[in-house]
Amino acid sequence: MSAPMPSHVPVMLPEVLRLLAPRDGGIYLDGTFGGGGYAQAILEAAPCTLWAIDRDPDAITRGASLVARFPGRLHLIHGRFGNMLDLLAERGVTALDGVVLDVGVSSYQIDDPSRGFSFRGDGPLDMRMERAGPTAADLVNTLPERELADLLFEFGEERASRRIARAIIAARAEAVPGREPGITTTGRLASIIRGVLPPDRSGIHPATRSFQALRIRVNDELGEIERALDQASRLLSPGGRLVVVSFHSLEDRIVKRFMGEAAGRSPAPSRHDPRGLAVRPPARFQLLTVRPMRPGPAETTVNPRARSARLRALERTNSGIAP
Fold first, then answer.
1. 3-state secondary structure the chain
2. Contact, 147 vs 155, CB < 8 A?
3. Which pLDDT score, from 0 to 100, does residue 38 have?
4. Rounded to whole angstroms, how far apart are CA atoms 62 and 67?
5. pLDDT tens figures, 174-206
6. Which of 43-52, 195-204, 296-305 shows the highest mean pLDDT?
7. Looking at residue 190, what is its pLDDT?
8. pLDDT for 58 beyond 70
9. What are phi and psi of 251, to 5 degrees?
10. Most exposed: 137, 157, 193, 277, by fewest CB within 10 Å?
11. Which domains does the chain have, with CATH numbers?
12. CA distance linking residue 292 with residue 143, whole number of Å
């Protein structure tokens, strides 16, 4: 197998391939093309057709060389994976044999300071995956203090959200000679947060959770995941599989709940609830991973970003009819 495009290390690739199980003549979707690591591996695993979606125009441009390597088999689509039903229907695709989603931010986005996703290199406070719409700077410089604190707590699980929000409000009102007004760079925001939070004993940068929260809000990432899971389940043919790699608890919680309910594992109603007397229809899916799979030590040593990864998968059964 050839190496994937530079700077991109697909997480848990052997596990993803084993669970997706690409077959000859199958039709698959990579909903998060990114650096093309999963796409390349799927196309090399079997003579199949792969559709790949990415909301980042840079990823689509970057994938041109891979399209040339697999003429007629790899098809790139610029758009959101939460809109996969319409995007594929426009191209005559109404059923799939498998879907893989590697949710969250890509290595290319994190490593490019000009995209503003990380505090490791100073750059514009942007964070937009598709380079359109309001930026993180727009949120930081316009939201009221309470709304900003709620955002940091909800999407970043940041316990010090109110303290950070107060510091941001105070900082954006400062008039500093030689510096444009407001908070416009990743370095400036990270410095403000670092100034009010003590260093984390785990070694995690104090701004990590706040940057995560802003990124999720800017890109509506959790809403996209919910829409993508629902639409993927509608597209899967009997025997088709959905494989999802997530990277933090908010993402994994959504995936876990969706897959559990799809497989008929939602809690039964109370014995006092009349709905408990109704016969449950057969589950349309079966879980392939009762518990999330985790990367092994060998992988996390080579690729530390894989440490937080969780992999879950399910398969469409022959029971029932997809909604």
1. CCCCCCCCCCCCHHHHHHHHCCCCCCEEEECCCCCCHHHHHHHHHCCCEEEEEECCHHHHHHCHHHHHHCCCCEEEEECCHHHHHHHHHCCCCCCEEEEEEECCCCHHHHHCHHHCCCCCCCCECCCCCCCCCCCHHHHHHHCCHHHHHHHHHHHHCCCCHHHHHHHHHHHHCCCCCCCCCCCCEHHHHHHHHHHHCCCCCCCCCCCHHHHHHHHHHHHCHHHHHHHHHHHHHHHEEEEEEEEEEECCHHHHHHHHHHHHHHCCCCCCCCCCCHHHHCCCCCCCEEECCCCCECCCHHHHHHCHHHCCCEEEEEEECCCCCCC
2. no
3. 97
4. 10
5. 755 556 678 999 999 999 999 999 877 777 899
6. 43-52
7. 96
8. yes
9. -65, -50
10. 277
11. 13-108+221-316 (3.40.50.150), 112-219 (1.10.150.170)
12. 36
In the predicted structure, residue 139 carries a pLDDT above the cut 90: yes
- Tokens 């959905």, residue located: 242
Residues 261, 135: Cα–Cα separation, whole Å: 35
Residues in the chain, overall count = 323
CA–CA separation, 264 vs 286, rounded Å?
A: 8
Average pLDDT over residues 217-224: 97
Query: Global pTM?
Result: 0.88
Asked if 145 and 165 touch (Cβ cutoff 8 Å), the reply is yes
